[in-house]
Write a structure and sequence with these properties.
Elements: H1 2-11, H2 18-29, H3 40-48, H4 61-97, H5 118-124, H6 129-136, H7 155-174, H8 177-199, H9 205-222, H10 229-243, H11 248-264, H12 267-271, H13 274-285, E1 298-299, H14 303-323, H15 345-357, H16 364-368, H17 371-379, E2 385-389, H18 399-403, H19 408-413, H20 427-431, E3 437-441, E4 460-461
Antiparallel strand pairs: 1-4, 2-3
Helix pairs in contact: 4-9, 6-7, 8-9, 9-13, 10-11, 10-14
Bound molecules: iron/sulfur cluster (SF4) (2 copies).
One iron/sulfur cluster binds at residues 387, 404, 406, 408-409, 422-428.
């Protein structure tokens, strides 16, 4: 064993090759527990002298603890600074171009009589002319003088038609179409750039944080809470439940988002979603410089548990939307951190908890609640591009699985049936000492049956 320690020490003089060499050495020696450069000191201490209170290479424990303490303090400062910045900048952005509030209006009760002219009916009920025309199917100005009774619609039928038309009118009227067009154009350009970087393995801990921050500023602070991928599903269910109508532009947006998942895994969620990137950046604040493990412990809850909660939440949300015409996500919608005027006290509390939890659990909203997260998880199984491992190069060191912020890489390596959401975050690509992982087209290949038998990250992002 001393020979082994001497070998490891020697490699420290060559930092660039160290992880690879150590990994190969570890693999060949079958000393599987040593898989990460960052736990080298602890392991060497155990090997050389388990009772020693100073670290190898002359670094006393106290110095290491102080360094950790300052990193943790910096993580909390970064967290507080980011939230302060988002709140302040979103306030300014909302004041300048916040747009109209989006909400589903209560049903209108009509002033109605069979003898009224259509024109009078519209005026009495304050209906926009285009709604009166579309509900009665008018083709000329003269038709406005016909009586309501001549259209063979009783009061109940007319009320239902008017309320549906008003709901669609309100949806259209509340949207800032220029901003929406700018946001989709921005998404396409931004995601294309990040996609190329991912393919070329150019995403590293520093650039990852910069890209997340850019996404937050661009698609959250500047371009606002809406539209969002989550909103396309949530609002579609809420509107249909309350009014029985579908807003066609929303379906177009949802199709575009799903298409993005189909092409490139949960690439949109990873880099484009204004809430996903916010949670991700916060999670990365609480990680070491190499972005491989938490400064304070980070947990990987079992996927079966988180996915069951996510499915249950969607079912409950849908039932309440259809039976009671209520949108329960509206009260806690964390996207509203970019639209402060729409936040309730409950919303503030929920978002505060969610963002603090994000330091310790990877993307809690995405894995526990988001309806689009769930839809994306189903669809990512047939994505064209996905994270893949070349098992000829892979030496089964398990570094990627440990660095992966959730359990997806471990499940990929072990060929589990249910693989948690892979956000194509590139952490595993960047961590693999053998450069055996990439983001490429085609099906995942399978490793030898025993290759990862003993691998376990014990539900803790170490
Ligand atoms: S899963 Fe997360 S990243 Fe994806 S749409 Fe939902 S909130 Fe955004
Ligand atoms: S497997 Fe894990 S580390 Fe790799 S891209 Fe997916 S989520 Fe990120």
């Amino acid at each position: 064993m001393p020979k082994f320690v001497a070998y490891l020490r020697k490699q420290l003089t060559n930092q660039s090759k160290y992880p690879t060499l150590m990994c190969e050495y570890v693999h060949n020696c079958h000393v599987k527990e040593i898989t990460d450069i960052s736990n080298y000191f602890d392991i060497e201490r155990q090997l050389v002298n388990p009772t020693a209170n100073s670290s190898p290479l002359g670094k006393p424990d106290q110095e290491i603890h102080m360094k950790n303490g300052s990193q943790i303090a910096r993580a909390f400062l970064n967290f507080a600074g980011l939230i302060f910045f988002i709140i302040a900048a979103s306030y300014i952005s909302n004041t300048l171009w916040g747009g109209k509030p989006e909400k589903i209006e209560a049903d209108t009760h009509l002033t109605y009589s069979q003898e009224m002219s259509v024109k009078t009916f519209g005026e009495e009920n304050n209906l926009p002319t285009e709604i009166t025309k579309s509900v009665f199917g008018l083709s000329s100005k003269e038709d406005l003088m016909k009586t309501v009774g001549s259209f063979n619609m009783d009061e109940a039928m007319l009320t239902e038609k008017i309320n549906k038309a008003l709901a669609l009118y309100a949806e259209e009227d509340s949207k800032d179409w220029q901003k929406i067009a700018a946001k989709f154009a921005g998404w396409i350009i931004f995601l294309f750039v990040v996609f190329r970087m991912t393919r070329k393995k150019q995403i590293h801990p520093g650039s990852r944080k910069v890209l997340y921050l850019a996404s937050i500023i661009l698609f959250g602070v500047i371009l606002g809470a809406d539209p969002s991928a989550m909103g396309t599903i949530k609002d579609a269910i809420a509107l249909y439940g309350a009014k029985g109508v579908i807003f066609p532009p929303r379906m177009v947006a949802l199709t575009v988002f799903l298409l993005m998942v189909f092409i490139a895994n949960k690439f949109f969620c990873s880099w484009g979603c204004q809430l996903g990137t916010l949670q991700d950046l916060i999670f990365r604040f609480n990680r070491n410089k190499k972005d491989t493990k938490g400064l304070l412990p980070q947990y990987k809850p079992p996927f079966m548990l988180t996915n069951t909660i996510r499915i249950t939440f969607l079912v409950v949300f849908t039932i309440i939307a259809f039976v009671w015409a209520r949108d329960i996500i509206e009260f806690i919608d964390p996207f509203k951190i970019y639209k402060l005027s729409a936040l309730t006290y409950v919303g503030w509390m929920f978002i505060s908890i969610l963002l603090i939890v994000s330091l310790f659990i990877y993307r809690p909203w995405c894995s526990l609640f988001c309806p689009f997260g769930l839809a994306g998880w189903f669809l990512e199984k047939i994505s064209i591009y996905k994270i893949k491992v070349d098992y000829d190069k892979c030496v089964a060191c398990g570094m990627c699985a440990k660095a992966c912020p959730n359990g997806s890489m471990e499940a990929i390596l072990k060929q589990d049936r249910a693989i948690p959401d892979c956000f194509a975050c590139s952490t595993c690509i960047d961590t693999c000492p053998q450069e055996a992982i990439d983001f490429s087209k085609g099906k995942r290949t399978k490793p030898d049956i025993d290759k990862f038998k003993g691998l376990s990250t014990k539900n803790i992002a170490e």
